[in-house]
Amino acid sequence: MLRSARDPQTGRGMRSDELRDELINLFLAGHETTAQALAWTFYFLATHPDCAGRARAESVQNLSGAAGTAEQYGRLVYLRRAIDESLRLMPPIFMVSRTPVADEPLGGFVMPEGSLVVISPYVMHRHPMYWDAPDRFDPDRFAPERAMARPRYAYFPFGGGPRLCLGAHLALSEMVVVVARVLQKFHLALAPDGRVVPEAALILRPKHGIRVHVRRVQRP
Ligand code: HEM
């Protein structure tokens, strides 16, 4: 598709180096982010068995062990809230930056033209002005009535504005499918010898991975 894409104004296709850059970007932006978000989601579910139980019951009820359709996955409302909450506490892209094209006043300061302005979802997602008990994992924060009461940019794991993540819907769909299918089959418990240490690399990731004990769910 990228090879046959043409600029609508000039009719020009991409040079091979442009094509390579686009592909590398898609892999970089789309793979590690979603993988680490899944790792953190499994960490939170392994340490909050009550939440995992609710998400499992919902998955079993709606999918009954089958591969599932998009419509069925769309009904996994609580599981989706658990993913949103995991992206709040551990946003894989924990900071983004912008460069003002002109001096820009903000809250009594001036952001000078050409400067580097760093904006952190991690900091905003735990800001006590917008979140009660900010460090607590509580998927029901994303119940519609509670989510609507917050300002738009209290939560932005996928960024915002014209450079909003291109793959947000794909990432969320993929995560709902993976988490639902794992929970239907397995109980996860954090391995006692596993050390969970966040590491602020390019992506916010668990430095030593997330080690869990996996036990098969017994069907009645
Ligand atoms: C949980 C998974 C993901 C997270 C947390 C995430 C987060 C983000 C964030 C915060 C930005 C904005 C960066 C900025 O404002 O400077 C962004 C941009 C982007 N993301 Fe994602 N992303 C995820 C998955 C994906 C996937 C699956 C794809 C593609 C398959 C993707 C493709 C992109 C692209 C192409 C951009 C640049 C958009 C632009 O500048 O116009 N992302 N992502």
| Strand order across the largest sheet | 1-4
Q: Major β-sheet, in short?
A: 2 strands, antiparallel
CATH class: Mainly Alpha
CATH homologous superfamily designation: Cytochrome P450
Task: Provide structural commentary.
- This protein has seven helices and eight strands.
- The chain has 220 residues and is an alpha+beta fold.
- It has one domain: Cytochrome p450, CATH 1.10.630.
- The strands form four sheets. Strands 1-4 form a two-stranded antiparallel ribbon. Strands 2-3 form a two-stranded antiparallel sheet. Strands 5-8 form a two-stranded antiparallel sheet.
- Helix 1 (16-47) packs parallel to helix 7, helix 2 runs antiparallel to helix 4 (77-89) and helix 2 (49-63) packs across helix 7.
- The relative contact order is 0.17.
- The structure holds protoporphyrin IX containing FE (HEM).
- Protoporphyrin IX containing FE binds next to helix 1 and helix 7.
What is the secondary structure topology, with strand pairs?
Elements: H1 16-47, H2 49-63, H3 70-74, H4 77-89, E1 96-98, E2 104-106, E3 109-111, E4 117-119, H5 121-125, H6 144-148, H7 168-185, E5 186-190, E6 198-200, E7 204-206, E8 212-216
Antiparallel strand pairs: 1-4, 2-3, 5-8, 6-7
Helix pairs in contact: 1-4, 1-7, 2-4, 2-7
This protein binds protoporphyrin IX containing FE.
Key structural traits:
220 residues; alpha+beta; Cytochrome p450; two-stranded antiparallel sheet; globular; binds protoporphyrin IX containing FE
Task: Describe what is shown at a glance.
Helices cover 42% and strands 13% of the residues.
